[in-house]
Amino acid sequence: MENGGPIRWRFGGNDELTKASAITIRGVLNTLMENLKPEDSRPVIPLGHGDPSAFPCFRTTPLAVDAVCDAVRSAKYNGYGSTVGILPARSAIAEYLSKDLPYKLSPDDVYLTIGCTQALEVILQVLARPNANILLPRPGFPYYESRAGFCHLEVRHFGLIPERGWEVDLDAVEALADKNTAAMVVINPGNPCGNVFSYEHLKKVAETARKLGILVISDEVYDHLTFGSKPFVPMGIFGSIAPIITVGSISKRWIVPGWRLGWLITNDPNGILKNQGIVDSIVGFLNISSDPATFVQGAIPQILKNTTNEFFTKIVNTLKEAADLCYDRIKDIHCITCPSKPEGSMFVMVKLNLSLLEGIKDDVDFCCKLAEEESVIVLPGVAVGLKNWLRTYKRHLIRSSLWLSIGMPLLDNSKLLGWALENAALNVCYFAGQVFGTIEFGDSQIFGVGADFSVDKHQ
Ligand SMILES: Cc1ncc(COP(=O)(O)O)c(C=O)c1O
Fold first, then answer.
1. Are 433 and 447 in contact (CB under 8 A)?
2. Which among 191, 220, 246 is the best mutation to test ligand 1's pocket, defined by most ligand atoms within 8 Å of the CB?
3. What are phi and psi of 232, to 5 degrees?
4. Is the CB–ligand 1 distance for residue 116 below 6 Å?
5. Is 50 in the pocket of ligand 1 (CB under 6 A)?
6. pLDDT at 28
């Protein structure tokens, strides 16, 4: 407004964005972090997020680093790439993924994305026609809900069954689907449950999708990170039963989530996705979006070719050790139960028995108090769709399970709890150092030295 009156600004924020981001894991974690006490000198134990690169025992292979340096130095990747990704990278990924499939993927089946996150964004947006709905697992990865909500794609939830190793409740899938259902999502290996689906179960998923006339989005961002009785089976194997969109990235297997290189794959030997217009829409979306950094794309052929099995095995063994320790400790704690031993990915879901927890209202309250009293961050189940469950990241589980096992009966006496933790932590941390790297507790330092985790104990 002229003449000294107040100016009326004509712009404002987009409320839909604020709403969509309210249910992200990062949003919940930020709330928990607000409960940390600034005067607590102990390091924060972050068990709530899925970024293993924060921990010294999870370092990517130097061969991957060399590949990126070579790509940068070559000066061949300083320009814009093609919107679907540069051809050498797409060819290398097609070859890498075809090793586990009964047919050969072509580079044209591969679309490069900014992490697996953008691959999800692409396919959800592609499917978001008016009135369409999508079937999502509960518990699951809340980014799906946020993103679907933002593009007005209706979400319906089917359960994962804890007593059956978190298998998909296929009866629920059939009951939920209608003529507007476009797709169902499976996450394998699973976040947040640490489950791995068997070949037989995935086949049934594909058969159900075929019966319903829907496609399957298979989130395989944790591909090959399995350490139980079941091997990793790519859903694409069943691409001739129903069309499968696989999404993945190098974030987890190579421990480089910050490199932001992911992919979307059309596993569709019968050409159904093309006939239904899905392929054109994927290309259309990518034509109007940004791409992963070209030099990371340029490094991909070398990364995939040079990485040794020894590197992969070491990462999987570290995860397995953590999962075994965690599961065993949890068995001794009365107020939490783990219905199914984790066999893959980096997480475990445990259930809280609130009747044994004096003064705790629910999972969020539990996690806030855990942050406040012990500087331990654990994700409440409500953030992944299950109330009064907890998702923890397996790296430092020793301290959290110790806290739970010793701390719970003492929850109303935090001084005693602190004493118990400080004193009992030592011998347990010995193992933690062995498995995970360096941990420090007040005056006591436990060192896991170098990559082979030999242990030196100082008191
Ligand atoms: C199930 C699942 N899908 C997708 C992603 C995103 O992967 P990226 O970091 O490659 O974007 C994550 C990250 O934690 C995840 O857990």
1. yes
2. 191
3. -75, 130
4. yes
5. yes
6. 80
Residues of the chain with pLDDT under 70: 1-3, 22-23, 392-459
Query: How many Å lie between the centroid of ligand 1 and the Cα of residue 337?
Result: 26
Return d(Cα 298, Cα 11) in angstroms, integer.
41
Give me 153's structure tokens: 């794609």
Q: Which residues contact 41 (CB under 8 A, 6 or more apart)?
A: 442
- Could you tell me if 234 and 220 are in contact, meaning their C-beta atoms sit under 8 angstroms apart? yes
β-pairing, 376-377 vs 439-441, is unpaired
Atom of ligand 1 nearest to the CA of 250: 10
Neighbouring-strand partners of residue 264: 111, 247
Per-residue confidence (pLDDT) for residue 282, from 0 to 100:
98
For the chain, domains (ranges, CATH) are 20-53+310-413 (3.90.1150.10), 62-306 (3.40.640.10)
52: Cβ below 6 Å to ligand 1?
no
Pocket test of ligand 1: the residue of 146, 250, 251 to mutate, having most ligand atoms within 8 Å of its CB, is 251
The CB of 187 under 6 Å from ligand 1? The reply is: yes
Q: How far is the CA of 306 from the centre of ligand 1 (A)?
A: 24
Residue 92 vs residues 95, 102, 242, 302, 353: alpha-carbon distances, Å: 5, 17, 25, 9, 48
Q: Over the stretch 2-61, which tens digit does the pLDDT of each residue have? A: 567 899 999 999 988 888 776 677 778 888 889 999 998 888 877 777 788 877 888 999
- Ligand 1: does its nearest atom lie under 6 Å from the Cβ of 292? no
* E strand intervals along 74-214: 110-113, 133-138, 154-161, 167-168, 181-187
Which pLDDT score is estimated for 118? 98
Which pLDDT belongs to residue 401?
A: 32
| pLDDT tens digit sequence for 79-108 | 999 999 999 999 999 999 999 999 999 999
User: Tokens 């050409």 identify what position?
Assistant: 271
> Strand (E) positions, 29-132?
45-46, 110-113
**Per-residue pLDDT at 330:** 80
Q: How far apart are CA 380 and CA 368, in angstroms?
A: 9
